[in-house]
Design brief:
Citrate Synthase, domain 1, 3-stranded antiparallel sheet, binds acetyl coenzyme *A, about 50% helix
């Protein structure tokens, strides 16, 4: 895999001129013909750095995990189209694919599933840990803190073998942590994992069973949860994945990297958008005629309101995950025999926005979060758990990127530069002379 990532230099160059001197930058080309000018020697040869706020045009690494063509609406994990994985695979199969690079054999998958099932429990001392956190805490920071705290329970040095144990522990314990963070928020008893259930069913059981009431997992619901996890499993160098890589680049351990990734995902412009979408749809449902009012505010340059679940840094076309989810939304709601006013409002909003000059000219389409919240709601997942579900899904992607970075022979600590715009040197002013 390493050579696949590092031997892509071509004979081509791009030339730039600075202060009368011509500088040749080598061109690196990926397997899907994406081209990049390698600027890694630019500063040492010319004194120049590049400036790219939000990294919209910066390739931070070479990666063999996920391919996205945002113009065409294509997403592939390790070469496999997301639509095919969504239809035919399971979340643990996809997790293996992302982390190991190939689809597992039947025997690989059976062993992997067994290993994960054996590590689902949390140390009993975590009861005190959860107990020390406020009851009204959002489950996302609770999850981030708990994953960070795992590093205090597993302190072995991070050898190749040890890091494989960490991978299994993280995948196994994440649903338990997620469910406990919810149980903590509603003051209910934690439910132990049931290791004869599959990954998604076990999570649902820990979320919804109580010591006095069994929860029989509906296969329609657990299959839909599994699908949602697959669709969220990786998305190349997004905000949270870049955070995981950045933290790992200092050789901080994998638990620390994943905890930071969960924190980055929490923001409403990233994974937190799914909660915001539902809050927006609920507000529209409450207030007659507010869809148009909402869109007017989203279009207004002087108003910071955005149509949540719309727009994407990379997709300038329909997000393929949103396309799968839109279809699944109607199927799940039909199968469960419920109706969804929120789905109707979402589809109406989409219809208006996709014909509206503001959204069309900016190539703003529904992203994965536009429909995921509606499905979670239909499945009975509480709103404050939506982003936690996203984190559970994204975990294998974060792990795959962390490991890829660590195994890259060109791996260096992440350390961007800046263009300084503050004061020039000035002498210290004593307290009594300050106005
Ligand atoms: N509603 C209204 N206007 C929007 C929206 C939106 N949802 N998204 C972008 N725009 C507008 C911007 O105001 C800007 O307009 P301008 O050119 O007139 O100034 C233009 O479209 C480009 O937007 P940027 O902010 O430059 O796009 P960027 O790539 O930086 O941001 C982002 C992408 C953060 C996803 C943005 O589209 C957004 O805030 N969407 C809503 C939040 C959301 O759904 N986030 C989830 C993303 S998917 C994920 O993380 C899993």
């Amino acid at each position: 895999m390493a050579s696949q990532m590092t031997d892509n230099k071509t004979q081509d160059t791009v030339d730039i001129t600075f202060e009368g001197k011509s500088i040749s930058l080598p061109i690196v080309r990926g397997t899907e013909n994406e081209s990049a000018a390698d600027i890694s020697k630019l500063r040492s040869t010319s004194g120049l750095i590049t400036l790219d706020p939000g990294y919209g045009n910066t390739g931070a690494c070479q990666s063999a995990i996920t391919f996205i063509d945002g113009e065409k609406g294509i997403l592939r994990y390790r070469g496999y189209p997301i639509e095919q994985l969504a239809e035919h695979s399971t979340f643990l199969e996809v997790a293996w694919l992302l982390i190991k690079g190939e689809l597992p054999t039947r025997a690989d998958l059976a062993l992997f599933s067994r290993e994960i099932a054996r590590h689902t429990m949390l140390h009993e001392d975590f009861r005190d840990f959860f107990g020390s956190l406020p009851k009204d805490a959002h489950p996302m920071p609770v999850c981030a803190a708990t994953v960070g705290a795992l590093a205090t329970f597993y302190q072995e040095p991070e050898s190749d073998r040890q890091i494989q144990n960490t991978v299994i522990r993280l995948l196994a314990k994440m649903p338990t942590i997620a469910a406990y963070s919810y149980k903590h928020s509603i003051g209910q008893a934690f439910m132990y994992p049931q290791n004869d259930l599959d990954y998604s069913a076990n999570f649902l059981q820990m979320m919804f069973a109580t010591p006095c009431e069994e929860y029989v997992v509906d296969p329609v619901i657990s299959k839909a949860v599994d699908l949602l996890l697959i669709l969220h499993a990786d998305h190349e160098q997004n905000c949270s994945t870049s955070t995981v890589r950045m933290v790992g680049s200092s050789q901080a351990n994998l638990f620390a990297g994943i905890s930071a990734g969960i924190s980055a995902l929490w923001g409403p412009l990233h994974g937190g958008a799914n909660q915001k979408v539902i809050e927006m749809l609920e507000q529209i449902a409450r207030e007659e005629g507010s869809a148009e009012k909402f869109l007017n505010r989203a279009r207004d340059k002087g108003d910071t309101t955005r149509l949540m679940g719309f727009g994407h840094r990379i997709y300038k076309n329909y997000d393929p995950r949103a396309a799968v989810l839109k279809k699944t939304c109607s199927q799940v709601i039909n199968k469960l025999g419920t109706s969804s006013r929120l789905l109707e409002i979402a589809m109406k909003l989409e219809e208006i926005a996709l014909r509206d000059e503001y959204f069309v000219s900016r190539k703003l389409y529904p992203n994965v979060d536009f429909y995921s919240g509606v499905i979670y709601k239909a499945l009975g997942i509480p709103t404050n758990m939506f982003t936690v579900m996203f984190a559970m899904g994204r975990l294998p992607g974060w792990i795959a990127h962390f490991l890829e970075m660590r195994n890259d022979p060109d791996f260096r600590i992440g350390r961007p530069r800046q263009v300084y715009t503050g004061s020039k040197e000035r002498p210290y002013v004593g307290m009594d002379r300050r106005s």
